[in-house]
Design goal:
By secondary structure, this protein is mainly α. It has a single domain, classed as Four Helix Bundle (Hemerythrin (Met), subunit A) (Up-down Bundle). The chain has nine helices and no strands. Helix 6 packs antiparallel against helix 7 and helix 7 packs parallel to helix 9. The chain is globular and about 55 Å long.
Amino acid sequence: MKDLIILLIINGGFIAGYLLFLALGKHKNSNGAAKKAESGLIISSLQKYWFSITEPFVKLFVKIGITPNTITIFAVFISITAGILFAYGLWGIAGWIMIAGGVFDLFDGRVARATNNVTKGGAYLDSVLDRYSDGAILGGLAWVFKDSWLLFFIILCFIGFYSVSYTKARAEASGVKCDVGTFQRPERIFSLGLSAIFSPILSYYMNWETPILIYLVIIVLGMGTIATSIYRIIYTFKKL
């Protein structure tokens, strides 16, 4: 019950802050960082709110001289921690840690742009280490659901997460810009993290032992990422 109260306070604070953000009309202001990470599934105002509350951290990293590559590497360790927490079924804290890892993954690019330190090497490192982060998260979920039928959809997520990124990379290597489709990384992190954050609360009040939200999101992500990668294959093949 104590853990649930803490989770309610954290979630409530986040939601209250977002509602205040909307009430003050700050979501109408342009946010260049948010546009660079724009997601088709996450509403624009929520993206702007997220970038607004994390901007002080970007300024702090720039001020104390933390490099983008250091942030990239640290983000992987955060995701590994989230994967371990998922493996133990600690949904709420795992969800917040997972989103924290996703936030750090965005910090590296924002710090790089703020310091005019955008490099091909940094972009390469970020892209490669993202795959390790995804593997850590899905590995934790595969462990906790190893005896469940949901494991099939987790395997689909493994295939889909990697193929969505790979089909885009190969298309761009062939000279085709391939930003089509949904279920890109920010959307995956947000949806899975959010489902984990709210699952303990829903399970407690609905008296459900099964984390329904996590089941639902994993099924959608498994099928959605596979569909997106197939769509990108067809799209790229027509352009070549």
